[in-house]
Design brief:
Low-confidence stretches: 1-36
Radius of gyration: 21 Å
Helix content: 25-40%
Strand content: 15-25%
Number of helices: 8
Order of helices and strands: HHEEHEEHEEEHHEEHH
Shape: globular
């Protein structure tokens, strides 16, 4: 028979403090150093990182953090920070069976033929954004129709809240739908913000958007 734990061991377990992995990282590295531009250093431990790096979602802060691989791996398990930080995965999938009517699209109020949606856990609801020359713009219209779309599409129901998104592009004959990491959506936002010109955007930005979706399609196959 397995022996019962002693009162002393139970007391020690009860008094053991909760470990904050972010505080441990900062103590180990001697505190956060002078802030460099995002993408030049890990925003957790301040070690230098290159242009190709991992990201964490700061869930209550509604922002992405650039991180080194070691810090990223600390948060691949959901309970590492009690849900405060979540590792952005590297999963790309196409969804060729996706269906959305023009009326449902129009009801969500996207002025361009691009949008992304994801489930925001701290608000317990889906949110919808579209890229614009000013950055990511949230659609504030009713998304009840989108809830119906998700309820009828098992693939959409598999998305991880806060860190994976549905990326949509409206075409002449329907919609291209991809399930992507949330940082891919903000890559598209940055592309539009940097290269958009005039009222319609210009040929250059739309060529870059075509190239972006070609890369998304290729990664989805892999």
């Amino acid at each position: 028979m397995r022996p019962s734990p002693t009162l002393r061991s139970l007391a020690q377990k009860k008094q053991r403090p909760t470990v904050d992995p972010v505080a441990v990282l900062r103590e180990f590295t001697g505190g956060v150093r002078e802030q460099a531009a995002p993408g030049e250093q890990c925003e957790m431990c301040a070690v230098p990182i290159g242009p190709e790096h991992s990201h964490l979602a700061d869930v209550p802060g509604h922002r992405l953090l650039c991180t080194c691989r070691a810090c990223y791996l600390l948060f691949t398990e959901g309970g590492a920070s009690h849900g405060h930080y979540r590792a952005v995965p590297d999963r790309y999938q196409s969804n060729p069976d996706f269906t959305l009517s023009p009326a449902q699209w129009d009801a969500m109020g996207f002025p361009v033929n691009l949008a992304f949606l994801f489930y925001q856990s701290d608000q317990s609801r889906y949110v919808a954004f579209y890229p614009s020359p000013g950055g990511a713009t949230e659609s504030l219209l009713d998304l009840a129709g989108w809830d119906e779309v998700v309820a009828g599409d098992p693939r959409l129901q598999e998305l991880v809240p806060d860190v994976e998104a549905v990326l949509l592009r409206r075409l002449d004959d329907g919609f291209a739908c991809y399930l992507v990491p949330i940082d891919a959506c903000y890559e598209l936002v940055g592309l539009v913000r940097q290269y958009w010109e005039g009222f319609a955007g210009g040929e250059d930005v739309w060529q870059r958007i075509d190239d972006f979706f070609a890369r998304i399609q290729e990664r989805s196959r892999g």
